[in-house]
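Q: Got a minute? One more chain.
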Amino acid sequence: MKIFNILLLLSLTSICSSSYAEKGLAFVHGTGKQTNALNDYWTAEFTDSVRQGLNNPNNYTVINCDFDQYMWDDTAAGCLANQLNDFITNNNIDNLIMITHSNGGNIARWILSNPTWDPSYGAIIDATSNVIALAPSSGGTPLADAAIAGNVFEQAVGWLLGYKSDAVKQQQVSWMDFYNETWLYGTQNRPATLKPFEAVVGSDVSSAVWDHDSYCGGYASQVALETTQNWLDDCSDGFLDCQSQNAAGTVWFLDTNKTHDSEPLSHQQSRRTCFNLDTILRQHI
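A: Always. Here it is, folded:
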């Protein structure tokens, strides 16, 4: 009888613990100072679709921070950490999935690489299950170098990069090489990030006026990204080379391997409901 009671107690404890456990989702934007990232960066259409993959779709948050700063800055990683900690605490989250886009992946990776930098990082790392990094700028981009140099690229990519902010300086290729070799985990010959970092890689841009797919995410964005792609590798999303996107963590998938009709995802489309991306994410979480 005593053994039975112990087993019963352990079983009840397990049930209570699992029922208390909550999975949550955080959408982490890229470069820029956001005050309404839901509408201005992601769109409700995208977030509402993806969060249906949660048992409780209301357990989500959309981050709003100043990501024009260096990733370690209090208004960047500090802001992200504060908002994530509030979300985790207020909603009893112990299974956090972050969906990041572009430079947002660098800021999340900063936290996952520097657990002692700030006392709040530990709780975030403990609660995090994985990061899904959409088109992460893990290896930087030549377009950041061009924007800082102030040459012809500046007019073409200013709307993407925010011109000469600290975040743009940070995403210069040589600068990201340095950070990846010293401060950040997840790249070749470095320790793995403290939680999985899964990259979704965009490989091309479609801007043909007669192609309906060119209009997903906004046709003007596609034209601009098609222009900047001329100075990138053949495999790129118009803002980042594929090599940069797959520089850290593991590649979850290359766009054309999972998207509807094997359509590529431009840098703009990788944060929109283009070619079933939202469904793929929803099923994954």
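A: The beta strands are 22-28, 60-62, 93-101, 128-134, 197-201, 250-254.
Q: Perfect, thanks.
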